[in-house]
């Protein structure tokens, strides 16, 4: 398909980001820093919360409906031409990735930040020739496609690594790190790891429900007192990956100063990731949908809301590890209200209630998601924290119910 359009992706300067957790947040912070530097920046991410327009942005602006229509009209003949070929029809993700490349070229972006959809080695975004790559935390997810062991999953993520292209990685478990190290050695790619010698180091000095303040120390700069509106220790780690990634662009004439990094990270917005949408009571949206995400969410709750009564609104997709998610989150809650999104893959609310009962005895089941949240608010008191989580589908449906757009 790209060949039919003259391979627009090959003319784009880009960075490429893979991982199990945090790759979307890292991509958003990377794009925000590049935009703050005055570079017209395209951002391609997935999935979306409310509108699929969220997946393609230029300088934080979602692709317009008019541009989607124009791109689809130009792409349909090409898509149809390969439907009966040996390749078969493209997937939704492949078609939408094509639209992203076309949009970025037509909008004359200076830089494109590309997040993988699934894995890396066979991901549609891997056709890019990036100037630098990043790999966020690797954990168990999508095992039916990526493999049943951390080594197998890491090998798929490491598939984005190109010969001679530097890589910035979050800290990894030993099995994953060994795969990344071997791949980088084989492809003669420099590897920088957060928290290790030569890589970025990050420390958080303070945090509240609005932002956390951190210092990121690299071989090039000390970025002190960075205010980051994305909360949690995992987001501080993601910020360090993003800063390390943009620093890798210096040999290509892209020098990012301390003030630019500070302004970029302070301006980032990434809805549905420990997003506090109201107080008294606190209402928190978090798209944690696997064991690693649940662990990150639990750690942030324990750090930020000690002693607070927590009401959990939980909805999980059927292809996720329900027990692992429930085992980490439900013991923190005084009450769990299970729900189910409209996704055909959602676990039924009453089935989920039975599954979480052994982790929290105070449970109820309500659908749709908006009704579950209304019940949580009805049962709450001003100091309480209502946490809506378990699936990006659940978060997205509550955002729709609140009438909130993702911008």
Q: What does this 3D model show about the protein?
A:
- The protein has 407 residues and is an alpha/beta fold.
- The chain has 13 helices and 17 strands.
- The chain has helices at 23-36, 65-83, 92-106, 143-146, 150-157, 174-186, 233-247, 258-267, 291-304, 322-329, 349-356, 369-379, 392-401; strands at 14-18, 41-44, 56-58, 61-62, 111-115, 132-135, 167-169, 191-193, 201-207, 212-217, 222-228, 275-278, 282-285, 310-314, 335-338, 363-365, 385-389.
- An eight-stranded mixed β-sheet has the order 4-3-2-5-1-6-7-8, with helices on both faces.
- α2 packs across α3 and α5 (150-157) runs parallel beside α6 (174-186).
- The model has no long low-confidence stretch (mean pLDDT 95).
Q: Helices and strands in order, then pairings?
A:
Elements: E1 14-18, H1 23-36, E2 41-44, E3 56-58, E4 61-62, H2 65-83, H3 92-106, E5 111-115, E6 132-135, H4 143-146, H5 150-157, E7 167-169, H6 174-186, E8 191-193, E9 201-207, E10 212-217, E11 222-228, H7 233-247, H8 258-267, E12 275-278, E13 282-285, H9 291-304, E14 310-314, H10 322-329, E15 335-338, H11 349-356, E16 363-365, H12 369-379, E17 385-389, H13 392-401
Parallel strand pairs: 1-5, 1-6, 2-5, 6-7, 7-8, 13-17, 14-15, 14-17, 15-16
Antiparallel strand pairs: 2-3, 3-4, 9-10, 10-11, 12-13
